[in-house]
Amino acid sequence: MRITNICKTISLLSLTLLMVACFGGKISSSSGGEVTGAGGRAFTEPTPYGMTLVKRGHLHMGLDKQDSLWGKQTPVKDISVEGFWMDETEITNSQYRQFVNYVRDSIIRERLADPAYGGDETYKIEEDKNGDPVTPHLNWKKPLPRKPNEDEQRALESIYTFNPVTGEKMLDWRQFNYKYEIYDYAMAAMRKYRINPEERILDTDVKVDPSKEVWISKDTAYIDDEGRIVRETINRPLSGPWDFLNTYIVNIYPDTTCWVNDFPNADNEIYMRHYFSNPAYNDYPVVGITWDQANAFCAWRTEYLLKGLGPAARYVQRYRLPTEAEWEYAARGKDQNEFPWDNADVSSGNGCFYANFKPANGNYTKDGNLITSKVGIYTANSNGLFDMAGNVAEWTSTVYTEAGVEAMNDINPQLKYNAAKEDPYRLKRKSVRGGSWKDPETYIKSAWRSSEYQNQPRSYIGFRCVRSLANTTSQKSTKSKKR
């Protein structure tokens, strides 16, 4: 009997040590039986490249004074937001082209592994180093062939098309589709969507009916037999955790024709042909990007980051578009100015403008620019952010309504709605902030609100990314260094 008790004690001690090892804590021999808290290794989040920290704070959002030029009333409210990382500049052609190149090289690797193009299985990884099966994925360590054979050459050439009239060789932009998945943590956490019916209601006086169906809505997408993207929003009874996983397929190539379509009766062909592809425009903000494409870039940027982080990846938050409230809070700077700079004027006493916008009727060049300008050439605001007024207007994640912030919470305010394909077009407007190179002074005020339909590319709308803090307890001012 005594031996049995000793064995039980040893077993319990072993179990305790095992649990401590699993949860990263430590056993204190001097606690005297008191609860002293579980230990753990703190995670220090490195400053993301090209981003700066916008510390948490309060904002009187909107304009109290009705706009005298347009007579437009901007909703106002006192709000508070958590700190976040934000891109110092708008996403450039060079940065977005890295995304395009990634998708291009993914397509080529898939083709090289396809039996129809030679079937080189080394471009796909289907087993780990121990020979155990894994989810098939591309082998990025294997370089593309420098001296391709006939099959490899066909794979490399398959991403191009030819103008049948001029014979010009160009990328077949219709093939440049990026697939990604987003798990909706917020929806999955809502009590009404619990898998176990008994957990949906806390009121013990209410009898739970386990047979009552709970319906959910999720986004999914696929490529049909003709190579077209089909996006669907499915409404169905809740069946399990997979119902909170949304799938998107987005054609990510910028619409370079926006320079012609935005300005009829104007000769803008040179921008259409060269603005995105010519290295001379590398450091200019990317345009012709829809709201869906901007979100796809954020998803790819997250995937690209997480591959190199290792175990620390579980703490790092996703890249995303800023909310409308975050954008205005960041743009106003530490003193909540009307413009991103410190005074109500748009130029200094010696005539130097603070932003790239349209200073006079028809005179786009008065500020030294005709269209967009290189990012970061104007002085940053007090948060270390460039071009928060003018250059290009910027997508936010917030759905556009006339009520604006009045309809939102006063802590981390947001109105989010992922419009289904079948929804009326009026429900597909997103909030756009900051004004652009083609807009007058009023439009570049930090509180000015405008909108655009989420599938509409424009030559004057771009975007920048934000990332929520992995650790909100420490918010020291910091800024990453540009290479």
What is the rounded Rg? 27 Å
Whole-number mean pLDDT: 89
Tally of DSSP β-strands: 18
The percent range for strand residues is 15-25%
Number of helices: 8
Tell the overall outline. Answer: globular
Sheet with the most strands, sense and barrel status? 4 strands, antiparallel
- What is the helix fraction of residues, given as a range? 10-25%
Order of helices and strands: HEEEEHEEHEEEHEEEHHHEHEEEEE
Low-confidence stretches: 1-23
Strand ordering within the main sheet: 1-4-18-13
SS content category: alpha+beta
| Quaternary organisation | single chain
End-to-end separation: 71 Å
Question: Could you characterize what this model shows?
Answer:
With 483 residues, the protein is an alpha+beta fold. It is built from eight helices and 18 strands. The strands form seven sheets. A four-stranded antiparallel β-sheet has the order 1-4-18-13. It has a four-stranded mixed β-sheet with strand order 16-15-14-17. A two-stranded antiparallel ribbon has the order 2-3. Helix 2 runs antiparallel to helix 3.
Short description:
The protein is of the alpha+beta class and 483 residues long. The chain has helices spanning 2-23, 93-113, 150-157, 185-189, 258-261, 269-274, 291-306, 324-332; strands at 51-54, 57-61, 77-81, 84-87, 124-127, 133-138, 160-162, 169-171, 177-183, 215-223, 229-237, 245-251, 319-320, 393-399, 429-433, 449-453, 461-462, 466-468.
